[in-house]
TrEMBL record, chain A:
It comes from Cohnella abietis. Transmembrane segments: none annotated. PANTHER family: ARABINOSE-BINDING PROTEIN-RELATED, DIACETYLCHITOBIOSE BINDING PROTEIN DASA. PROSITE patterns: PROKAR_LIPOPROTEIN. This is ABC transporter substrate-binding protein. It holds the Pfam family SBP_bac_1.
From TrEMBL, chain B:
Residues 68-282 form the ABC transmembrane type-1 domain. Gene3D superfamilies: MetI-like (1.10.3720.10). The keyword Transmembrane helix applies. This is ABC transporter permease. The lineage of its organism: Bacteria, Bacillati, Bacillota, Bacilli, Bacillales. It comes from Cohnella abietis. The keyword Translocase does not apply.
Amino acid sequence: MLKKVTAGVLVGAMLTISACSSSNETKNGEDKGSSNKKVEISFVDVSPSPDRTKYFNEVIAAFEQANPDIRVKMETVPWDQAFKKLAMQGASKTMPDVVNMYPTWLNTFVPAGYLEPLSTRYDAWSDKDKLTNFVSGITMEELQRKVYKEIYYMPDALMSSALFVRKDWFKDANLPLPTTWDELFTASEKLTDPAKNRYGWAYRGSRAGFDQIFAYITAVTGGESYEKDGTSVLLRPEALEAFVRFTDIYKKGFAPKDAINWGYQEMVQGFTSGVTGILNQTTEVIATAKSSMTDDSWTVIPYPKGADGKRYIGASATWGYSVSAESKHKDESWKFIEFLSSPENNLKYSNALTMIPIFKNEDKTLAEGPMQGFIDTLDDPDSYLVADLGNFPELGEFRESFMDAEVQKYLLNKQTAEQTLKNLGDFLTKAQQKYMKDNPEVPLPHVTKPQMK
Amino acid sequence: MKRFRSKEPYFMLAPSFLLLFIFLIYPLLSSFLYAFQSYKLTAPNDIGFNGIANFKAVFQDANFGMVLRNSFLWVVLTVGGQFVLGFILALALRKPFPGRNFYQAIVFLPWAVSSFVVGLTFRWLLNAEYGPVNDLLMKWGIIENKIYFLSDPNLALYTVILTMIWYGVPFFAIMLLAAMQSIPEDLYEAASIDGAGIWSKFWHITFSYIKQTIVLTLLLRTIWVFAAADLIYIMTAGGPANSSNILSSYMFMKAYATLDYGQASAIGLFFMALLIVFCYLFMRATKFEKAGNF
């Protein structure tokens, strides 16, 4: 009897223990591996798609062939959950060795100490001189070393905003393709015909919809997002005017009424399924549009110019590769990042996913078709890179749960435009001014001139 | 050996208590602690106790009143609708008719489908741009303009409630039908001989026989519906502008969109207190301990 009972208790205890300790076990396994000179590093892709997974599988196979003593285990997490999952993994010290990092996440992850500085490795990197000025000057220095004192990620490629338009609708309506915001607003009105279920604008009312409004607001504030003392530009009177003008696209019905719930996926679908005529999106959508629409029905045009004749455009590293501070195999992880960032692999990646490569394009063989258009737009003397919203840790909360709900209240006539901009502006001002007090050495986000050469 | 014998039950229970502790008590205690801390994953360096600041923030939240009102509507309309329709369905299925088993399998089907699939299907059906519901209603001339089921703040909550009712009707039907089938047929025969009509047969036999089941299913269902956030999350994510959030989905958004575990735990504690009060009142009102002989 005694034996039976003890056995029962033991089995129960072992079940619970093994259920709780599975993560420890894998770590032990890794350590054993390193003594056999075979190291396994984990890598997480935060925006999986069939194209990306295919690319990464190929490049990992090539890497393992070149480095027989390193194995790479790839994991993926859907984009909508990526930040939350990584934040939790960081807090519980289980972040994978190599992480696909979204640039604004550094605000949270660097002060928390989840990421390994890569500065010395980057400074000694042999391909460093081949980077475009945009990457080496802005992405690496302005946006990383000047803010965080160290470099934390290697950009995978660059992404830039652009306008996707229905060429055939513009032709039918006898409209020229817009080059300024004014023409764009007129066009979105003229293309709208609810009877045909056609609307001018693929309006993004939810999940980062405020970014689209802010892109227009920066066109009237000269690309700036803060005054010198850290006050948000949203409190300027011209920002209010711009806000009302942009949101009128929705309020006056030049976008489907449903669009108040539209996020990334719905707005892209709204464009590719022929409900809307203009879509403000980043370059990676080219691949989607190519596969679901006929070539003569759509095209991509450069971002419009503001009233001052200048073009204020958002462009940044799409994602980057970072090493987790908890990683036990930092050298191997860097080796993998170096391999991903070689000029050949970077070009392959950029072409497969329609993004802008991080290296100089000296012989013009690099980018294909519309991608060269993006590079030329950024290189144009009238193009400026808009300032971002800052580096304070509350930015995650602002973006994830605050900004869109405030704008939706205005769209649904539950709050005035003045009140909406005051709420948004006060949030940003308070957070930015607090950040400036705590980090006096970090420069204010400001407008810059991109250089792709 | 004898001393061991007397303790034997505790040894046997130990593993399950251990599991309960790990998966129930520990999370409960830690959420209790989180509720009194500033615990935001977006600010991992500022974690620490902050008294009742989380509760203050939650109760002063401009959305909180609307969320509470929505929760009330959600529970009352959903459970009420599911109960009435489930009861009717159970009554209809009680007497045998040709093809009953087949019919029964079809109407109980929604219960077997994952709520994720239900949510996505209804979201597509009710989509204003390419959903078939609006399209058919317009083609049949029933409506002139599209109905924005999920993007109109006055409709979004009711749309999800309708979906939830459809989804939960089979649960009531299954439970009530099982109870009805245990009613002995001779009771009805005896009643007929005594000259009872349909209504008094229903009231004095069917209803009073299954009263206990009704009380129990209503209680279970209310708790369950009150805590169910999945359909709301999938169909509207609480939008537009929080107009379709209920307490549980609001808590979920706080925890997983804002990553503010402190405030989410505060909502959770409030939520638990509400449910405990509700269960107590419900059991008193229905004389639950006397097996529902009200």
